[in-house]
Amino acid sequence: MTTPFASRTELLLEQHGVDRLRNAHVLVVGLGGVGGYAAEQLCRAGIGRLTIVDGDTVSETNLNRQLIALRSTVGQPKAMLFRDRFRDINPDCQVTALQEFLRDERTIELLQSTPFDCVVDCIDTLSPKVFLLYHAHSLGLPVVSSMGSGGKLDPSQVRAADIADSHTCRLAAMVRKRLHRMGVDRGIRVVFSTEQVPPHAMVQDPADNHLTTVGTISYMPPLFGCFIAAEVIKTILYKP
Description:
Layout: H1 4-22, E1 25-29, H2 33-45, E2 49-53, H3 78-89, E3 94-98, H4 104-111, E4 118-121, H5 126-138, E5 143-146, E6 158-162, H6 170-181, E7 189-193, E8 202-205, E9 208-214, H7 220-237
Parallel strand pairs: 1-2, 1-4, 2-3, 4-5, 5-7
Antiparallel strand pairs: 6-7, 8-9
């Protein structure tokens, strides 16, 4: 029997679609501006199990775009805030929250720990991002990855495609290059924008010449998150 929570979703997806989502387990790594929204859309869609991972805490610079960022939550761990929020939205959703930054062997350990129906990558840092993508792909897990949402203003230029067909986005180019060296050219879904980043929107951290901060607007990371959630849901609904 459908609960009131799932009644509107069932009108769209019918009972078999609701059942598929309820029986699915999705891993979301990175709960920032993109990942937080992606994870919440999955929770509200009725995904039965969510494993969410982020080692960061809310900062004041998150307030312009991140779902969980409030004055009252500054300094609190994002993973635990989302865990409590999702349990409040849908108590039937089994939420496992890991407050950690995934690295190397720990990434492989988590990917092999249980059969995930889909993996969502919203990691900002290049090396752990590529490591997660490579090993998820190698294990045959469906993956949806966020490319750069910073420095963009035009929602109409957001796209979802195989990584081999991504373009314009600087982060996508770097990810493609590293994956190519590892023997992976396609088979990973990505959300990206074809919009060019204006030079004035980027500033280098004087303490680290390799770290660049990119300006963001309130609606763009949430839009990326919604695109990602849609890709995950389609993957689960239409899998053989």
